[in-house]
Amino acid sequence: MDVFDKLKILTDAAKYDVACTSSGVDKKASAGGIGSASACGICHSFAADGRCISLLKVLMTNGCVYDCQYCVNRRSNDTPRAAFTPRELAELTINFYRRNYIEGLFLSSGVMKDPDYTCEQMIEALRILREEYRFSGYIHAKAIPGADSALISRLGLLADRMSVNIELPSQSSLQLLAPDKSKHSILAPMGYIQNRIQENSTDLVKYRHAPKFVPAGQSTQMIVGATPDTDFQILNLTEGLYKKYKLKRVFFSAYMPVTENALLPALGTKPPLLREHRLYQADWLLRFYGFSANELLDSSHQSFNPYLDPKCNWALNHMELFPMDVNRAPYDDLLRIPGIGVTSAKRIVSTRRASSLNFDGLKKLGVVLKRAQYFITCGGKIADGLKITQDAVLRSMMSDTALGMYQQNLPQQAEPEQLSLFGQPAFTQEDIRKCLTGQM
Are 214 and 161 in contact (CB under 8 A)? Predict the structure, then answer.
């Protein structure tokens, strides 16, 4: 099998991993090196100047000794298998980078032979990139649960960010669908990585040129919709991970049925994309708005409202706290008002020191008055002509899409899609073949 065929199989197999966003680290190449990373992010998106900035998202191999029922790469699934050698992967990455196809690498792998052997192969690929090619670009590597801590340490010194995927939110789900994995085997490397990061930021801080261990931090991913675990369980686990392991991000991946199994949703079941979206919104509230998981959901309400975002839903359930006067409310309270975000709250606090704010002024500061006007006053006065009714508030809280779903009671019609090396308007297969053979 040639490298092109391997690439096609292993980039397609990597599409189910969503933990692939901003780098969170500033780094330039040393003299004679190539590549760089930027804290403003490297991801599948468009930069301000119109460039599509991206990572080569690929598996070392899609062969796996584990038999996780939800995974397309499990050992019992009949699917084409492939594996890169460390040098093939390193050369592929450098060739793509030199031709401006990518800006970094996201490397994961199935478990071939055992976790230690898999980790050794990943380390060798990254060693070639860092030491032989002197590549200083962004690299995100997936730690392999069960690998020796010495190997995790070596991998962390070569990567900018690492992640250990929890995949399923509870031990019972793991036992049912991934019997080869355990909660301990996943959390142990996560704890080790966190301890090494902490050492890096304290004990070694006085040594300017000491190698940095995972300078962009670590993240994880959870699959949503493959098991009966509720939003309440997932969000509480998310909050616990942020507090205990100081993760940079928790990613959520709506489960896409890829195999027929009585324990999993039937083939053809739509992935719960709206549920995934609500979890991301709630995650944002945990990280930047001062909310706790128990405020957003509780044992009596274990699922998010599909028609309202979590912040609006919380506000409607706590109307006793409103309206707030924007000229007097503390910053933390401003963050809880629908239509006011982190940036606009900071602008309000800064502006009201010099003058009293009115509704026109709030609009200029970026406040979304369509939502906020039902929860605020300016100088003790509500907006002119505003009639507060339950129907008016609900309509203002809902996006046009959610309102249409509510009125028609239809599921959201959205198809999952991911950028592909082999799709349009990317480069052609012939372009890639030329790149691999050094003809470009």
Answer: yes
> Confidence band (pLDDT; 50, 70, 90) for 21?
low
Return the minimum-mean-pLDDT range out of 17-21, 57-61, 139-143, 306-310: 17-21
Which of 12-26, 155-169, 338-352 tops mean pLDDT?
Answer: 338-352
Nearest 5°: the CA angle 435, 437, 440 is: 40
Global pTM value: 0.83
Name the residue type at position 290.
G
Cα(434)–Cα(337) distance, rounded to whole angstroms?
Answer: 55
Contact 243, 269 (CB under 8 A): no
Counting other chains too, the contacts that 435-439 makes at CB distance below 8 Å and 24 or more residues apart are: 435/95, 435/96, 435/99, 435/101, 436/3, 436/4, 436/7, 436/92, 436/95, 438/95
Exposed, middle or buried by CB within 10 Å (0-12, 13-18, 19+), for 382?
A: middle
User: Residues of 236-267 as b/e, b for ≥16 C-beta within 10 angstroms?
Assistant: bbbbebbeebebbbbbbbbbbbbeeeeebbee
Token code pair at residue 109: 């792998």
Q: Could you please report the per-residue DSSP string of 148-173? A: -HHHHHHHHHH-SEEE---BSSSHHH
37 Cβ neighbours under 8 A, 6+ residues apart: 23, 25, 26, 27, 104, 136, 137, 138, 160, 216
Q: How many Å apart are CA 438 and CA 192, to the nearest integer? A: 41
Q: How far apart are CA 124 and CA 90, in angstroms?
A: 9
Is the pLDDT score of 308 beyond 50? yes
Per-residue pLDDT at 54: 78
- Chain segment 369-383, per-residue pLDDT in tens: 999 999 999 999 999
Report the C-alpha gap between 71 and 221 in whole angstroms.
Answer: 14
Asked if residue 130 lies in contact with residue 105, where contact means CB atoms within 8 angstroms, the answer is no
Q: Which residues contact 376 (CB under 8 A, 6 or more apart)?
A: 322, 323, 324, 325, 326, 337, 362
Asked if residue 253 lies in contact with residue 224, where contact means CB atoms within 8 angstroms, the answer is: yes
Q: Beta-strand (E) ranges in 371-427?
A: 376-377
User: What 3-state class would DSSP assign to 104?
Assistant: strand
Query: Quick check: bond before 425 cis, omega within 30?
Result: yes
pLDDT of residue 188: 92
Please name the residues in contact with 31: beta carbons below 8 A apart, sequence gap of 6 or more: none
- pLDDT at position 193 is 94
